[in-house]
Each structure stands twice: as C-alpha cells, then as structure tokens.
C-alpha cells in the first residue's frame, strides 16, 4: 500500500515539474527586412554627351579661343599630282584657325580639287564622296564672316576662301573650301569680296599642274584630283 502511494506521489511530482518548467525566452536576434529602399542603388548609367558641333552661333567664339594658343601656321597639302605648302596669315585669325582645325580633324583628306578654271584658280575641299558629307555633318554647319580689310590682295599663289553657295548677301565664307590663285600676277578683281588668308610658299609648280588638267562641265576635272593628305608642318 505504501508502495503504491509512493509511486503515485512520484508520478504527480514529475507531472508538476514538467508543467512548471520555465518556458523558453524569446530570441533577441534581430531580423533585417530588406526592402527596395534599403538596397544600394545601382550606378546610374551616364548619358553620353552629345559630340561638339560648330554652328553659326558658336563658331566665332570657338575659333577666337582656339587661335589664342595656336602656334601652327603652315599646312602641307599632298595631292595625286604632287604636294605644296601654304603659310597662313596670323592676322586673319578666324580663317587661319578654321583651316588648321579642319586640317587636324582630317577633314581635307580624300577631298578633291573639284573646280579648276584655266589661268584663274583651283578650288578644293569638296567631293561627291559620301564620306565628305559625313565629315561635314560631324564637324558642324557654319559660315565665317569675310575678313578682307587686312590689306591682302589676291596675288598669284594666294589661298582664299570662297563665299557659300547659299543665299548669301553678306558674302559669308564656306569654311570647308578654299581656292588658290594661279593668274599672273594675280586676280585683283577678287579683292574686297573674298578673304585671302595665306599663300603658297612651296610647290607652286604643283598648283600649276593641277590648273593645267582637262576639265568638263562645271570646271570639274575629267580625272579626279584628290587631296590624299593635309597636315600641319613646322
């Protein structure tokens, strides 16, 4: 009898102890909830800046500043008929800077002497090749004001800038083209209307050779005369 009571008491005691066991404490570890706002932002994709292009509005300021540190004044023009060198006038700054700039940009390479007028001029800087139009588009569309009051005349060997073919009452210059006078002693009827900005100092025989080529309608040579390379020289 005592034994049964002992076992009963023991069982009850165990049940009580199990029931009274300390409940587990809640964990104190923090849980980080990642939201869209807490994620580090991805690097913003930088928009590519539009390439600089010359326009009628910015060309004068650009060439004014470009000319400030410009020490170059000679350009060698190599053609399929030989090469010649021109020296540019320092006091015709916009036209000088323009010619140096286009030379360094490689614009004149693979353009042509597209107009040859016997005993008068050879005119270069244009082409019917698609690449020439693409280069013009990349550089920009602009005209330059004439600068014909520096006292320079259109002597033989003078390099000058033609006026644009657009409606142009102010004789604004087409910056991509140039002409060289071959007339002896010169073509002085051009003075005051066009801008002389340099002269041939070497290779005038090549200029004469280009002027002697056979031409067709529009004074375009029957055989294309390419400028294979224009480069600044010391």
UniProtKB/TrEMBL annotation:
Keyword Isomerase included in the entry's annotation: yes
PROSITE patterns registered for this protein in UniProt: CSA_PPIASE_1 (PS00170), CSA_PPIASE_2 (PS50072), PROKAR_LIPOPROTEIN (PS51257)
InterPro entries referenced in this protein's UniProt entry, alphabetically: Cyclophilin-like_dom_sf, Cyclophilin-type_PPIase_CS, Cyclophilin-type_PPIase_dom, Cyclophilin_A-like
UniProtKB keywords: Isomerase, Rotamase
Known EC number: 5.2.1.8
Catalytic activity: [protein]-peptidylproline (omega=180) = [protein]-peptidylproline (omega=0)
Domain (PPIase cyclophilin-type): residue spans on this chain: 79-232
The family this protein is said to belong to: Belongs to the cyclophilin-type PPIase family.
Role description: PPIases accelerate the folding of proteins. It catalyzes the cis-trans isomerization of proline imidic peptide bonds in oligopeptides.
Protein name: Peptidyl-prolyl cis-trans isomerase
Provenance organism: Maribacter polysiphoniae
Organism ancestry: Bacteria, Pseudomonadati, Bacteroidota, Flavobacteriia, Flavobacteriales
